[in-house]
Amino acid sequence: MAELSWLGVVRHGQSVGNVRAQAAEQSGLEVIDLAERDADVPLTDLGREQAEAVGRWIAELPVAERPEFAVVSPYLRTRQTAAAALGGTGIPVRYDERLRDRELGVLDLLTARGVAARRPAEAARRRHLGKLYYRPPGGESWSDVLLRLRSLMRDVRADHPGGRVLLVGHEAIVLLLRYLVEGLDEEALMALARSAAMANCSVTSWANVGGVLRLQQFNAVGHLHRDDTPPTRQEDVGAETA
């Protein structure tokens, strides 16, 4: 199977959930005040501005370096990001549920304080198993997300051999793509997760070098600074902080 010539992934713009989650964590609350289900959380006005800045970055690329196809998580915040960034570019877009955010099950909408107070047994089990293998009841582990990403990437490579493909997804998706594409181990993934606060509408990309995808840029926000658009680094709703 021919490798892609280029792969990029954009995290969605700032969402209402990002803002509410940050406020809850900073206020020491146990629960994030959010009525929408995770799939229906929209972008903020700033999130739309960030997505539009991604669109201007794409428009400025030489034609030969622009994405040829985009695969987008079906969640509202990612669809809105893709619409603002890719609208008018002519780049074909496909929505694929394998790019959705990690499902947190019983931990959904709980802050770090909330997990410790309301689900202490799960907090202990999570510490013991680690992020890669811990699966909350009714939710997914990072390994579960990797299984669907492996399936997605197999299809993308088969459908677009030698192509230039852009993905639009979520915080965990970006980190796990690095694990998958670069062949990282658990230790390297955990070190990466601890060291990198994923920015909204950041760009991570890999270029084909000798038939292998090599990291080109990670968590890049230069396109936001050029447009005087404030970058934000906020966790997704209910994202684990420990």
List the helices and strands and how they pair.
Blueprint: E1 6-11, H1 16-26, H2 45-60, E2 69-72, H3 76-86, E3 93-95, H4 112-118, H5 120-129, H6 142-159, E4 164-169, H7 171-182, H8 186-195, E5 203-209, E6 212-220, H9 222-226
Parallel strand pairs: 1-4, 2-3, 2-4
Antiparallel strand pairs: 1-5, 5-6
Helix pairs in contact: 2-3, 4-5, 6-7, 7-8
The best one-word shape is globular
Total E-strand runs: 6
What's the order of the H and E elements? EHHEHEHHHEHHEEH
Structural class: alpha/beta
Keywords:
about 240 residues, alpha/beta, 6 strands, about 40% helix, globular
Task: Describe the model.
- The protein is of the alpha/beta class.
- It has helices at residues 16-26, 45-60, 76-86, 112-118, 120-129, 142-159, 171-182, 186-195, 222-226, and strands spanning 6-11, 69-72, 93-95, 164-169, 203-209, 212-220.
- Strand 2 (69-72), helix 3 (76-86) and strand 3 form a beta-alpha-beta unit.
- Helix 6 packs across helix 7.
